Amino acid sequence: MRKKVDRLSPEELEQAARQLLENDAELAYRRDQHRAILDHVRQRSGDLSALLSEEIAVVGEARRALLRLRVVAALAFLAAAFLILGAALWSDGTPFQTRTANVTFASGLAVFGTIAVAARWAAIRRRGVNAARELRRALVAPLRALIRLLISELEDEEVRWGGTLRTSEAPALVELHLQDTIPSRTYERLRTFIGEHESSAIGLAGARGSGKTTLMRQLRLDKDLDCHVALVSAPVQYSAVEFTRLIHNELAQVGLKPGEAALIRHRMVAPTLRAVLRTLLASVVLFFMITLWIYDKNRPVPDALDLGWAGFAAVVLGALIMGFMLSRGWVLFQSRTRLTVPPRTVRELCLQQLEFLRWSTTVERSAGAALKVGGTGFDGGGKLSRTEREITHAESVQALRQFIDQLLALSGKPVVICVDELDKLANPAEAVDAINGLKDLFHVAKAHFVLSVSTDAMHNFAARGVPVRDVFDSAFDTIIGVGPLSLKESQTLLSRRAREFSNVFVLFCHAWSGGHARDLIRTARACVDLKRELKDGEEATVALLSGRVLRKDLREVVDATVEKLRGDDRGNDRGKELLDQVLAFQESLEDESAPLRDLVEAGAFPPDAGPVAPEAQPAATLAPYARIAGLCERLFSVARPPAAWQGEAMGQAVMALAEARSSLGRHPRAIERRLERAVDACDRV
């Protein structure tokens, strides 16, 4: 069967881009460059269409349904015209006695047909308008990101590599669930592993905010992967049966058309019934108005073959009521047989599974007998009612396995089930139970499972005696660590989220965040926020803003360390010494005139020399954090020409600082080695 491919037309895309350029204050740019931007947008229409394929498919289906209805309406109106014309010219006595009655009957049928077609047209048009509105809403974010990237690419080298921040507004520098995710090395590893194996169980491990959820969403958006991808977020309160049902429900919705699952979920009988009754009442009133008007103009003489106007109205009204009852009965019959009839399509299978998950089945049998003579006698009856019991975890797992097998058989597409935020479970032991509970589903043919948990949570679990790391190692075929972003990936991410964001500031944000996606966005947002706070006469240079960002972040860490040390109830000299050292450094940060590196070198920090109490852990890692901050201020406090910022030595220094920043929390010796490499790289700039 030929598959129709829907996509955004270049004209529609160009019109949407032009409206953003002309009306969006953030995207305001030189008008002489609008044509170049629009041409690039047209060239990349295929990429945007791939991102919005589901929304585009809904719009296309609504348009095709409206086109089919137009053809049906044209044929129906043509048939109605011939019917009325025939009744007026050649139908004396058939089926009514007079020609006027026959014309009235034919006109009534035409009116009812018109009302039915109009109601159907209004419903399809409303669906098309809603689908088009959803498409425009979904298009805004990726189109804005593309325009920001194009504006950055059109700037000359002096502007792109200038040491002054020109970005004043950056509403996208937050943790948005954007559809236009950037490609990364980690995603390619994940995608390749899924594509090369018949089935797999994959663990995603990484720090909080490193982008594990983004990788899972990217699997859903990857049309080349050609899989049924269900994304499930772990509940706060874990229940084995409910968790399996949640996965089952999400996977069942994947096989439906976009928006169809929501319509099924929010479908209500009462509003539909009221709408049908209103349409029915309006049709009856309209019909009676027409018949009474004709009756006043031409009074027919009734006989045995003529129903009369009242009789004709009663017949039509009865037919409408009968049709409504039959339609409702057919719906009820379908809902009762949906669970027993073998599905033939993926849609039927998914609808069947949603019915199975949403409703419980009650089976009733009754029998009666009576014997009466002269109004008295005996009667009796019996009734048997059976309600399905609640299924166990093993049965829910078996039902999900059967559904996966059926889905594979009907669609031929592999299934990918992503379970996110396992560390969100309230009890750490429940994370282990959740992984063990899903083991029964692993290694179903052409079924892949991707589970994520943060390394911070695994360390915390291990500290509490919960062997979640061992469970990960034994349950999964591979564990993919979500590493930091590369410098190029950081540049692409910020270019799509902030317009005219200087590449020099990208270097600073990457170095100070360590390539951690969430911290990268926060650092960039802090630069923009601090620029708006500048006084008159202050220029938004990288030396000024980077220094303020570093001091602000360092103060927050020091304040948090002091608060943590308040919980250290050991009361010994060692605890007091730690607190005094941190307080002394906190006071030194108040000197804005002194370079940050000098303050760090002059300060006395607690050593990171082995296991310490949880309250003292921030103090133990404060020294390397402060040293990295001092190195970053030193590197970016010097004004340089664009060529120097693009030099190889500068790139190596930035990457060395990012590696040192991302190593915080590891063994002290590993941190020290990376810090030494960062110092050497900065000395070579």
TrEMBL record:
What is the protein's given name? P-loop NTPase fold protein
Keywords of this entry: Membrane, Transmembrane, Transmembrane helix
Q: Which organism is it from?
A: Nonomuraea bangladeshensis
For this protein, the parts annotated as crossing the membrane are 71-91, 103-123, 275-295, 307-326
Q: Record keywords: Transmembrane helix included?
A: yes
